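pasting for the record
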Amino acid sequence: MSREQHIARTFVELADTLVEEFDVIDFLQQMTVRCRELLDVTDAAVFLAHPGPHLHSPAPCDPTPALQQLLEAACVQGPAVESHRTARTVTAPDASEAADRWPEFAARHRAAGYTLAIALPMRLRRENVGSLLLLSTGSRPLRADDLALAQALADATTIGLLQARVIREQHTVNEQLHTALQTRIVIEQAKGVLAVRSDITLNEAFNLMRRRARHHRLLLNEVARDVIENGLTPAEPAAPQGGPAEAATETE
């Protein structure tokens, strides 16, 4: 397979987030593998934003102890954090300057044997989801075309993650709508049952169920199911003192 074919195949993989069994960890792990295969880098890691000041690195899934320590530091300080914050490419400076700016990251970066660290933002318009960190043990800087490809991979990954989030949210909305529909059907059935049982109108039956739900702090669909399944017949509430005779006690 040529490099061009490999690149094309990779972008197809990154776009394939529409499947129902989409696994975000596997998706990000595969992305880091493709970075190592296509770019002149030793390792790659994805950092995602989450509530709080620090990033989270779900990939790579099986790092060496030295790389794991570096990734832990990179969640708090270093080029990955700055790239996410500024939405720009950030290259680690020379050793002495890096030690001043990011002491923990610089020390673990050096201890792991890396000589280069570049972070690229993962963003789509105003959505900034994290950053991609590229690490190398070589002496050459990353070529311009490799850097452009790395940013394209980061952008495609961002689109894939946002697309998966939209689909997941849509599934949640659909589930809520389905639940609401089923609840409404049960309530309508209970209204009919109660109206026939008590010889009242549908509107009066609904008001009786609603008053019982509010009085006993129940959901309306719980009262409706009680009417259908257990023969509950909510009664009119007791009249105020000094008013008409109190309504009959509820029959359950």
